[in-house]
Amino acid sequence: MTTTTTTTTESVTSQRDALGERMFAALLGGMELLAIQLGTRLGLYAVLREAGPTTPGVLASGAGIDERYAREWLEQQAVSGILEVARSGDDPGERAYSLPTGHAEALLDPESPGYAAAMPPGLVGLAKTLEEVTTAYRTGAGVAYESYGAEIRECIAGFNRPMFANDLAQEWLPALPDVHARLMAGAPLRVLDIACGTGWSTIALALRYPNAYLIGIDLDTASIEQARRNAATSGVAERARFAVGDAAGAAVEGGFDLAMLFEALHDLGDPVGALRQARSALAPGAPLLVADERVADSFVAPGDQVERLNYGWSVLHCLPATRATSPVTANGTVLRAATVRQWAGEAGFSAVEELPIANDFWRFYRLEA
């Protein structure tokens, strides 16, 4: 009995300590993400990249911040391994710090495949809304997408933009040979981008294919306003236009040669209805390209990092946001392939093909009536 009790106690202690260590690491990581977000908001990394080895005084002057705060932030960033100490010394005001080239790309180049600065605002947006989410859990209501604020828009747009810039035209569309052939031949094509967010997927195609005419639609007014600004800055506003709305409104116009729905199907309150409307917006034989989360085919616990990431988003954002829409269905982030096939069939698509596109986070589907 004593041996069994001792073994059980040791097992409980081991579990306890392992969870404590995991939570400590998460706290440390969260604090470092917030410090990165602080540096991004204040433009500190941009000053570091431009100035080279930088003292607290130089950073304070270049970014327009207080020098004492500049010194503390630089020291924290160096201790965290994000900055390097370019010149050491006993006088903290004379130490100089530099931003490694690879870190500069990860923090300052929004189209780099390694861009990582989209992550910190996501943590901020989720934390800011936690009180509303707590209330929603108690009442069964939802939390409107708009309540999550600019930080969530920034996170989602920043996380996906590198894929749109580097992979959409180069890898994803070639998996649709008929559409790709027409685009490469310079044929005029009408493309509908459903739930386009801040427009980077629409803009990426407009930049690559000068004969493509694109319409991006999204229910979030702030996202559409930003998409219009992004298109204007990118020089494609004449061929990439944006409207607040859903697939039902686009279906009135109809005749699209391609429709796209990226990482949004799981968020829709009426996914079957939206797919049905998307189908009616397409020209005969034209496909709908859907990308959504690459999750396990069935529930598995414990899960890998991608599964944990998706469930984290679902608990804190996607499920509450969907439930704020008086949904027919509130799926959450974890959208499995079998569910996509089921919804597509109910919406009237006769063919659903999972495309052989390598991506750590998304699965891709071609839907055709």
Briefly say what this structure is.
This protein is of the alpha/beta class.
Overview of the molecule:
The strands form two sheets. The chain has a seven-stranded mixed sheet with strand order 5-4-3-6-7-9-8, with helices on both faces. A two-stranded antiparallel ribbon has the order 1-2. The model has no long low-confidence stretch (mean pLDDT 95). The protein is globular. Strand 1 and strand 2 form a beta hairpin. Helix 1 packs across helix 6 and helix 2 packs across helix 3. The termini are far apart. With 369 residues, it is of the alpha/beta class. It is built from 15 helices and nine strands.
Looking at this protein, list some descriptive labels.
369 residues; 9 strands; alpha/beta; 7-stranded mixed sheet
The count of helical stretches stands at 15
Q: Determine Rg (CA atoms, Å).
A: 24 Å
Low-confidence stretches: none
The best one-word shape is: globular
Largest sheet: 7 strands, mixed
Main β-sheet, spatial strand arrangement: 5-4-3-6-7-9-8
Helix proportion range: 40-55%
Summed over residues and divided by their number, the pLDDT gives a mean of 95
Alpha carbon gap, first and last residue: 67 Å
What is the chain-wise order of helices and strands? HHHHEEHHHHHEHEHEHEHEHHEE
Structural class: alpha/beta
Number of strand elements = 9
Q: What fraction of the residues are assigned to beta strands by DSSP?
A: 5-15%
